[in-house]
Amino acid sequence: MPASAGLQETPRTGQDADPLTRVTRRRIYLQRLVGDGVMAPKKVLGQRTSMRVVVRFLVYLGLATIVILTRIAVDVIYQMNSSLSAALETGSFKDSATGKEMYFRNITDVRHMTDWMQEVLIARIKGDAQSRQYSRKLSLLSFNRVTPFLGTCTDTASFTMTMRRLQTTPDYSATTTERFHTLFPRSWTTGKLPAGAVPTDAEDTSDMLGLRMPVADRVVWKYSSPPHGYQSNGGYFGVFSIHDMNVNRGATYVHLLDYSSAEVKDTAKGICTGLPRSSTIAGADFFNQSFFGANFGSLVLEFTVYNANLQTMSKVTVKFEASFAGKINKRSLHIETIRLDPFHKTMRYFELAYLIMTIGYLLEFGYTFLKLMSTMITDAWTYVKVCSMLMSLLSLGVWLMYTPALALFNQSNAFMQPSKVEDFSAWGRLYKQTSAIAALTIYLRLLEFLSKARARVLLLARTLGMGASNMIIYLCYIFVVFIGFAAFAQNYFAAYSVKFITPFETVLSCFQLFFGKTGPMDTVDGSIAELKVVFYVLFMVSFYFVSVQMFNAIINYAYNRVSEQMEVQFEHERRTHLKKTKMVKMGGAGEGGIIGWLREHVSRLRNKAEKPGSTNKELEPSKVAKAPSSSLNFDNLEDAEKVKVEAFLNKDAVQKEPDSFRAIFLFMIFTLCYVWFLAANLTVYDNYQLGAVVDRAIWRETGRGRWDGMVGLPQAALWMEETLPLVIFNTTSEKAKARAVKQGIVKASTVCLKGWNCIVSTQEPGFPSTKIIRITQRRSNKQRNTGRLNAETPELERFTGGVDNITGQDLSWVLVNTRSTGIAIDPDQSPDGTVESSNAAIEISPALKSFCNVTEPGNKISYKEFGGIVCLLDSNYTSFMEQIKLLGTESFFGLDTSSWVIDFTLQNSNRQLLSHASIAFMVLPSGQLKKHVEVESVLLFSFPDWFDNFSKIAERLAPGIVYITFTIRFLYMLYDSFRKELYRRRHKEDYRFVTFALDFFRLDVFNTLEAVSIGVSLFSGVLFVMWCALDIQVQDKKEEGFCAFLAFTTELTNQASLYNRMSAVNVLMIGARPFKFVRENPRVAKLNQSFWNASNDIFWFVIMLFFSMFGVVMLVYISFGPYIEECSSLFSALVHCFRYLLGDFDFEPLIAVDPAMAAFMFPYLIVMYCVFTNIFFAIIDRHFVAIEAPPFQWKRKLKPFLSRVCRCIEWDEDYVMEQDPNAEKKTGPPSRKDRVKITQREIQAILQNAGVEDFSQTSFSRGRDLQDVCDPDERMEEVLAWAREEARNVVQQFNKMLVLKRTEKNDEHFVKHEVMATFVQKELQDTKGAMEEAARWMRYATRVAENLAHEDQETLAKYIALLERKIQRQEVEGQALNRELEHLETDIDKLRNPLNPSKERGVLDLKAAAKGAAAASGGHHGGGVAQGHSTARSAGDTAPDAESSSSASSDEDRPQKGAKGAVNAGRADQQGQDDAEKVEPEEYQENDPNAPATVARAMARGTDDNLKSKDLFEALGAHRSKRERRS
Predict the structure, then answer these.
(1) What would the pLDDT profile of 996-1023 be if each residue is shown by its tens digit?
(2) How far apart are CA 1156 and CA 1307, in angstroms?
(3) pTM value?
(4) Which residues contact 417 (CB under 8 A, 6 or more apart)?
(5) C-alpha angle 1265/1269/1270, rounded to 5°?
(6) How far is residue 881's CA from residue 594's CA, in Å, rounded to a whole number?
(7) How far apart (Å, rounded) are the C-alpha atoms in residues 454 and 802?
C-alpha cells in the first residue's frame, strides 16, 4: 500500500468488499493487538530509581552530614560541658552540722546548699595557695576563666543569684484549717515556687533585713521586679564578686542589687563601673544572715565561663527548688556552650553546595507535586520530604543569621551579662534542633530511594505501611487499659516510691514496665504495698506478653501478605538480573558503571597480554576432545526452566562429599591442642588478677589526693605528691614482707605491691642509684591569646569582648593572656610539632636535672620513645620522697603540662609473670583530666634455665607444635581441594583462574572461613615465635639498664597482647568451622537452607534498619551529645540507640536536657522494639524450611568401628518403612504463610458472595483458579495484579460511601445527592470518556494494522515470486549439468564395452532413474523437489536420445547437444510438473509407452503422497524388462 494513502481505508473488490469479512478481519487484528498488550492497560511494576539518582542523593546526604557536624562541633561542646559539670559536681564539702563528706547530688536542705556554695563553688573559683601554680587566676579546672559581671572590675570573677520566697499567710481557712491553726499560725499559700516562674500573689516581695548584725549595720535586700532576675521574672537579685588572691587577699563580696537606686562605684569591693546596689556585704557575713529562712522557695546561680584554648563561652545555671515539706527536692546543673570562633574557610563552600542541592530538590518536588498532587497527598514520603527540605533551609537560615550576630557579640561586652548569653545560646539550641530533624529526615529519605531501587526494600517498606494502621488501632485500644493501670499505680504507689510520685513519672514508669524494665517496681516495698504483686503480674501479662505478641502477629501477617502480592515483582527482578548476567557472560554491555569499566579494562589487558596470532590457531585435537557439557545451548528455554536445568547440571559441583570420620577426629585433636596451648600460655585469669591488684592499690591508698576525685591538674599534682608514695611503698604489710625476706623469696630492698608483685628496680647508666619508676611528661605550645583559633579568622569576627578602660587592651586578653593550641596530646600517640612544644623550649630547674632529662623523640629513655621530660625516681624511700617533693616545688607540673605517664615493671615469681604497668594522665584543653591504668602481663618461659624447667616448657610448647602441624595439614587439604576443583574446571570453556578462585571461596563460605583461620593461625604462630625470641633476652635486657628494660618489657607485653587478640579471633573462627562437618545432615541442612532463603531479605532489612537507626543516631548525637556522655560520640550514640532495639532505655536524662527532642525517642522505641524485631521473626518464619529428616541409621554409622570386632551383626541392614508413593502427603499444622493465603482466599470468597448475612453457613461454589488451569506467565500475572488493584479501589470507594451513609441521617437525600448526583454521574462521565477514548484508539490501531498487514502481504508475495524465478533458473542450470554428466558417462561405458549397446543403455537408464529418485526423495527443502523432477525426466529421455544420436559423433559436438537437450528437458520438466499435479497415483500403467516420464512423475508425487520405495523399484523393473524385449 502506498505510504501516501495514510489512514484512509483502501477500497476492495470481491470478497474483500464484504462487510462481514472485513469485520472478521478487523477482529483478528484487534485480538492480535490486545494480545500484544497495545490496547490493554498494563500494571506498572514500579519505576526503578537509577543508581545515578541514588549517588546524587548520597552526595547530598554527605554534604548535609559534614556541614551539620562541623558547625555544631559536638565534641568541643561536650568537652566544655562535662569539664564544668565535673568541677562542680565532684567537689566534696562537709556538712556544717554533722561534718559528713557530701557532694552536689546529696544536697537536700538549705544548709547543704550554702555549704556547697562556700566550699566548692567559691573555693574552686578562688583557688588555694597550693593549686594556684597549676591554674589561671579565677578559673575552674585551670583554664576556664569565670568572667566578671557588668559593672564589676575585670580582675574579679562574678556569679549572680536570684532568690524567690513564698509568702506566708495567717488565713488558716485557706491553708491548715482551724483544726491545725494553733500548731501552724502561718503557712504557705502554695506548695512550691519553681525557679523562673511568673510572679504570683503567693510570692513574698517584702524587703529582707540581715538579722544577725547590729541594727546600725543591718543590710537590706530589696526585691527586684521584672525584667530583672532569672529569666526576667524578678526576685531578690545579687552579685557575688570574687577577687584574686593577689588582689585584696581573695576577698569575696556580695552586692545586693536594687535597680531603683543609683549606680555606685567601689573599686575596693570590686565595683569599677557602677552597680545599682542597696547594700554590699562580705561573703562570710552573707551566709551568716537569715536570708535563706523558712520562706525559701528557689535559688538560681548564673555565671559565664571563658575558655581561651577552645575559644568558647559557657553559661552555667545552678538551680535549687524547695518543696512545702522543707526539703530541696530539685537541684540541677545546666550548661550551655557556644563557640566564639566557628570560622571555617572550606565549610562555606560545602554550605553553599548544601543550599543549592536543597533548593534543587525543593523545585523538583514542587514540579512533581503539581503534576501528581492527588497521588502525593496520600503518600507518607511526601511529608518526610517536605519536613526534610524545610528543616534544612531553616537550619541554614538560622546559621546565616547566627553568624553576624555572633560577630557583634564577640566585639561587645555582652558576655558579662548571663541573661544575654542565655538569649544568644537560644539561637544555638534552635540550630541544633532544626539540624537534628533535618538529618533524621534526610536519612529516612534514603530509604525511599532504596525502596525504588530494590524490591526487597520496597517489601519491607510496604510491610511497615500495611501493619501501621493495625498497630495504631491496637495502640489506641491498649492505651485505654494502660491509662487505667497508670492511674491505679499513681494513686497506690505514690506514697511508697518516687517513681510514681507524679502522673508523668507514673506514665514513664509504666512505659518502662511495658518493655520489660522492672526497675520502677523494685523501688516499691512489697511488705507495705500489698497489691504490688497483683498489679505487677496483671500488668506484665497484659502488656509485656500479650501486647508484644500481638505486634508480632500483626507484622507477620503484613509481611506474608505483602510478599504474596509482590511475587510478580520479585520474579520480574529475578529475570532482569538473569538477563543482565547473561549479557555480561556473553561480553555485552550489560553491566555499566565502575564494575563494567573494570571488566572491560581487565579484558583489554588480557587481550594485550596474549601472543600475536594465538587467537587464530586451530584447536588442538586434545582440546577438541574435551568438549564441555556446558556448551549445550539453553537459550530457547524459559528463564525459570533454565535455572532449574543449570542447577541440576551443577548439583555435583555444589554438593560436597561428607567429611570422613578421620577428618572430624583430626579436627577435634587440632581444637583440643589449640585450646590447651592457649590456656597454658595466655594465663588470662592470672593477668586479670595482677591488673586488679594494681587497681586496688591505686584506689585504696587515697591519702588527700583521691583517685576518683581527680578532675583537674591541681588534684592530680596533689595525688602525685601524697598518694603515689603510698601506692608504691605502702601496699604490702611489714609482716608479710619480713616473712618473704626470711624465706629468701625477696630481698629486703625489694618493693612489692600487695605481697608478691615486686617492682623491678635496676641501675640506669649515668645515675648512681637504682631506679624504680619512670615519669614521662609532654608539654603543649603556648601562644598569645588573640581571641581566635584560626589565623584565617577575620579581624571583625574574633572575640575581643570590648576594650578595657584602664589598660586599653582587649578584654579577652585581659581575662586570659595566653592559650594553648586547643588540641590534647595523647601520651600513646606520636608527637606533633605543631601542638607539642619542642625540647629546646623546655626548661627544667637545676634541682630536677639530677634525676630528670629532656629527651628527643626516638630515645628509648622516654615512654614509647616519644620524647619529653623523663624523670627516673630512686628505689630508696627517702630519696623517692625528696624527688616527689621537688617535682611539686620546682614547677614540674604547670599550665603547659598536657600529659604524663608513670610506668614500671612488676614481676611475680609465683607464676613467672612479667608485667608492665602504666598510669597515664591527659589534660584536655577544657582543663578536665583523663586518666587510666593499664597492666599488660606475659608468662615467661625461662629459656636460659631450660634444663631445670624442661617439663614446664615442654608442657607449654608441645600442644603448640601439634597445633601448627595440624594447621599445615589443613592447609594442604585446602590446597588439594582447590587443585582438584581447578582441574575439573579447566575442562570448561568459561574457565578463568581468577574467576575460579573467587568462586571457590565465594560459593563455599567454609572454604573462606578455613583459609582465613589458617592464615590467622600461621600469623599468630609467627607472633609466638617472636614472643619466644624476646623471652630469651630478658636477663640480658635487665643488665642493660632501667630504661632499656622498661622499653623491652613494653615491647614484650605488646607482642603478647597482639598475640592474645589474634588468638581470640582465631578461636572464634575455629568455633564456627565444625559446622562444615554437619552441613550434609538433613536437619542442619534444613536450618542452613532456611537462613540462605532468608538471607536476601535479612540483608536488605539490616540495610534499612541501619539507615533508619542512623538517622536517629544523628538526632541523638546532635541534640544530646553535648550534655550526655553516652551520646557524646557517634559510636556511643549508635550503641545508645541500638540498646533501644533490645528494650534497654532511659528517658530521664534525655528529658532533662531537651524534652522536645526527647519526644522523638518514644515512637522510635516502639518502632524498634515492637516492629523491627518482629520483622526478623517474620522473615525467618516465612522462609523456614520444614522437611522431615530420614531416620538415623546407627548400624551404618558404627560399621567402620565395630564391623571387624562383631561380625554377627548385619551392619548393612537398612530397614526403613516404605511409603506409598501414590498416597497423599500428610499436611502438618499450617504455617503463617499458609494461613495468610487461606485468609486471603476466604476474604475474596466473602467479597464475591456479598449480600449473604451468615457467611459461616454458606458453602461457596467457586470455579478453579487460573493457577489450577494453566501456568500463568508474566503477562497474566500483570493482568491479575491489575485486576486486584482495580477491585481494591472499587471496594475502597464503596467503603467510603458506606461511612458517609452512616453519617447521613436521611437515606433518600444521601442516595439522591451523594450517590446519584456525585458518584454515579462522575463514574458515568469518566467511563464514557474512557470508552470513547478507547474506541478512538481502537479505530486508529485497526487502520494502522490493516495497512501494515496489506503492505506485508504484498511484500511477501513479491519476495516469493522472486524466489520462484531464482529457483527456476537454478533448475535449468542443474539440468544442463546433469545432461552433460550423463553424456560423459555414456561415452565412458561405450569405450569400456562397445559390443553390447543395449545393455549399456539399460544400465545408464537405471542409473539415471535411481539418481532422479534419490534427488526426488531428498528434495524436501528449497529446490530439492524440482531437482528430483528434472533428474527423473532426464532419465526417461536418455534412450531415445541415445538411439537417434550417432555413435560417430565427435567429442566437440557433444557438449553443444547436451546443453541443447538440457534446455529442452528443462522446458519439458516445467510442463511435466504441471501435468504431474493433475494426475493421481492410480493412473500409472505398466504398458504405457511413456513409462520413463510416468516413473519420474510417480517419483515426484512420492514426496507428497508418501509413495514407498518398493513401488518405485517395481516400476523401474518393469521398464527395464520392456526395453530388453524391444532390443
Answers:
(1) 788 788 778 888 888 999 999 999 889 8
(2) 48
(3) 0.73
(4) 149, 150
(5) 115
(6) 68
(7) 59
